[in-house]
Amino acid sequence: MLSGVIALIVALVGLVAAISALLSEELNKNKKLKYILVTTLFALTIYAMLGSIVALSNSESATSREQELRATIMSLETQAAISPPTPAAAIPTIVPTAAIGVSTDTLPTTMPATVTPESPMAPPIATSTLEPKPTAPPPTPQPAIADFGVGQPASKDGVELTLLDTAPEVGGIALNWQLKNNTDTNLAFNYGSQNFSARDNLGRPVAARFWDGRVFSCVSPVKFLLEPGKSIRNMDNGVCGHALRLNFDVADAKITEIIITASDIPRIGKAQWRIPVNFR
Length: 280
Description:
Blueprint: H1 2-23, H2 26-29, H3 31-82, E1 147-148, E2 153-156, E3 159-169, E4 172-181, E5 187-191, E6 196-200, E7 205-210, E8 222-226, E9 231-233, E10 244-247, E11 257-265, E12 269-276
Parallel strand pairs: 1-12
Antiparallel strand pairs: 2-3, 3-4, 4-9, 4-10, 5-8, 6-7, 6-11, 7-10, 11-12
Helix pairs in contact: 1-3
């Protein structure tokens, strides 16, 4: 607004100066200079008047905006007075240890964990009253198979099985067995090729069966009753009548031993004999 008043004063001064120039007698002598001076003064007067008008207009606009801004501020203050402010969350104040005279060398490097106290009204925790189930006992380890040589009997609970002798053949070895009942009761036996298995010292299976070495063999096991104190051999009639023959490559120098195993023999269970191959 001040700039508008100044511009208006300048315009009035210019107007007075222009009129004085028109009335000046000295300038009448030089009309050309008179016209130039008067024209310049009138132009300045018009420019100053326009500037004052614009300044006054801007001043009025600024005054209007200032009034609107004051009205808005008053409205906000009224609303703030009506509604109480929301309390801000408490911000912890961190005080440097140096400010309170505490040495940092004595402070722990880690803060202790926060312990949340249990509620005194917490219900008691129910404990299981079920008795533990008994565990199954570990399996009984199987005893090692006893090793016997030719002529040595495997005996248990009054039953005795003996490898009496061996006979080398072109295609293997023929074995003769004796089964004896040393008890005071009759014993029933189921005796045949299925009770015997063999392997060589290299772990390879060896065929074992009761047969005559040519045509006839005992395919099915023989069932018989053995009286107390009696014995029977596989070569005897009524049992099989043939030797137990083991078939393998006799010329193979790597075979140095045959292991023959008897299984499921009543009261004896399982036993094995080692037969050296030294007849080449």
